[in-house]
């Protein structure tokens, strides 16, 4: 009876671990912010060229630079969350394997 419960619990934990690993990989491999980063990177030199002739464009360049920094930190945070999910998912799968082995010895 207890062995069956432990095996079911180990199976559920293993599935949760697999879901966490897949979710982490999807977050890491998603490129949703990188298109925005490329667009902003291509527009910044155009603004810089206009800044030479017009002093009012300097505020726009400063805002664009801050936006680029914010998007870069957003990408780094998303990759960090994805890596955490993958590592924690692996740990949960390891714990599920350990539980299944102990249930098999009883």
Query: What is the strand tally?
Result: 0
What sequence of helices (H) and strands (E) makes up the elements?
HHH
Residue stretches low in confidence (pLDDT < 50, at least 5 long) are none
SS strand fraction: under 5%
| Secondary structure category | mainly alpha
The major sheet is characterized as: none
Shape: rod-shaped
Describe it for me?
This protein is mainly α. It has one domain. The relative contact order is 0.23. The N and C termini lie close together (11 Å). The longest helix has 48 residues, at 58-105. It has helices at residues 2-29, 34-53, 58-105. The mean pLDDT is 82. Helix 1 runs antiparallel to helix 3 (58-105) and helix 2 runs antiparallel to helix 3. It contains three helices and no strands.
Produce a short descriptive summary.
The chain has about 110 residues and is an all-alpha fold.
Looking at this protein, list some descriptive labels.
single chain, 106 residues, mainly alpha, 0% strand
Topology:
Layout: H1 2-29, H2 34-53, H3 58-105
């Amino acid at each position: 009876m207890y062995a069956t419960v432990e095996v079911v619990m180990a199976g559920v934990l293993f599935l949760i671990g697999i879901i966490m690993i897949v979710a982490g990989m999807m977050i890491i491999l998603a490129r949703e912010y990188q298109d925005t980063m490329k667009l902003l990177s291509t527009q910044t030199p155009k603004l810089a060229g206009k800044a030479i002739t017009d002093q009012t464009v300097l505020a726009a360049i400063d805002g664009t630079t801050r936006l680029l920094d914010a998007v870069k930190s957003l990408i780094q945070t998303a990759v960090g969350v994805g890596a955490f999910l993958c590592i924690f998912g692996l740990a949960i799968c390891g714990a599920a394997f350990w539980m299944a082995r102990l249930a098999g010895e009883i």
